[in-house]
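Researcher: Good morning. I'm working through a list of sequences from a screen, and I'd like to move beyond sequence-only analysis. For each chain I'm collecting a predicted structure so we can compare shapes side by side. This is the next one on the list. No need for commentary yet; just the structure.
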Amino acid sequence: MTTLEAAAAPSALSAFRRAWPKLWEQLGRFLLAFAIFAAFLIPSRFDFGGLGNVLILLYQLVIIGPLSFGLYYVYLVAARGGRVEVSDLFLPLQRAFGTCVLTNALLSLVLVVASLPLAVAIMIGLVGQSAGFLAASSVLALLPLFLALRFLFVPYIIVEEDVGALEALQRSWQRTGPIFGQLTVFAALAIAIALAGLALLFVGVIVSVMWCGLALAILYDDLSEVAEPSA
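Model: Good morning. Structure tokens for this chain:
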């Protein structure tokens, strides 16, 4: 794998800047893909109680997980100058359904386990009214955030490189290492954009989510151009 030293390193700010005009070029297609994905989310918004909630959990794992990978792929197609099609949303289900399900389960498990110390610190802080534990929770929140950033590229790798779940996690870990600083900048910008989107209510939230998704795809594609994939 080549280093990023011989070429310009990917830039989060540049990715957001280039994503903005690309977003408006195919806005209707993005909205359609987003609307379809949102429609699949509707059943998971209800409380069915008991066995129904267990089935909804399985639905999220088996359907929503792979579809979320498809949404990543939709943005990647646009980032590379391609024409977005609704079928792109379902490509992961066709190409790597089992791997998508397993990977989504592993990622969820990793992030839940990493968040347990944070949850415990918050509970102790609230119950015991301990400012120390509440302050510690802000530090503990860094671990799940760190892991989430290191595994950001997993959906792209699953769809494009025909590898298993563990290999995809490993490759994402390797590739995000050299640009972790830019991923941190990306996260900060994404939070700021999301907050601005909330201020504009429904329309602002949708646009901000699509803008961030497209910017991340551009960042991944930039990295792909200056670093060879792991063997």
